[in-house]
Amino acid sequence: xxxxxxxxxxxxxxxxxxxxxxxxxxxxxxxxxxxxxxxxxxxxxxxxxxxxxxxxxxxxxxxxxx
Length: 66
Known about the structure:
Helix content is 92%, strand content 0%. It is elongated. It is mostly helical.
């Protein structure tokens, strides 16, 4: 159960990054503030990917240490 919940963080991060990238692409096409949108997108993707990496490490620890 713990491993499954840890893996779900990766799935959630992937979905979140995909949605954020799509919305940022739409916003860049519609406006001229592409620099600010791009930097906010990269920061958000980095935070989401960090969450996924923590979940992956937790899953590995549960598998090999538990």
